[in-house]
Known about the structure:
By secondary structure, this protein is α+β, with helices and mostly antiparallel strands.
Amino acid sequence: VLDRGFVLGDGIYEVIPVYGRKPFRLPQHLARLQNSCDGIRLRNPHDAAGWTALIDELIGRQDFADQNLYLQVTRGVAKRDHAFPQSAEPTVFLMANPLVTPSAEQFEAGVAAVSATDNRWQRCDIKSIALLANVLLRQLAVDAGATETILFRDGYLTEGAASNIFVVKGGVILAPLRNHLMLPGITYDTVIELARAHGVPLEVREISEAEVRAADELWLTSSTKEVLPITRLDGRSVGEGQAGPVARHMLALYQTLKQAG
């Protein structure tokens, strides 16, 4: 019970989708894990080969092929004190559950979202297990019967409480800038790579709240939701109120990529 992850939220985590027993974009996930470790000055207990071996073992123990793999590293067990302990070994925890992604019907209908002021800390680029602010913001959506909360800071889009957010206007995909105010999602990066590789118009820049509210399409992206349209925001319809053509195109590209391994 004196693990610093439990008493102080002193740790980081990753969520890795597994398709057909193959982890999707594992090198990118492990690179982000290292960035999170560096961001909180936590020694990474394994190199890439060590993590790959652990992950492969965990995947092999399950009787389902598509998996939602969670891994967590904390600073370890020590007497409760805010200061870093002089001698503590990182605690490593991994688990796998069946991966459930949106159905075709859910994709076409899209989901509802609400909006809120982004009141989290200034290092949202670290995938920290200290997620209380995200929990409270996500609960705003749950209380409203919605799926996600879209966050704005100083009049500009940052991300969702548990996802990245994309905007489409006039056939152009708008993506918020990667910085310390948002988590650099692996699916976010994948969407940008696919758009550039297939000639889909794309702008990566600051996106105003007004642009979000006037969008033709909104999507949320994450390792488990993949690319999922948001068709209602704060009770108002987004675009035509259903999945748009750019979302359909991008999801098709994403499915082709993941099936290729």
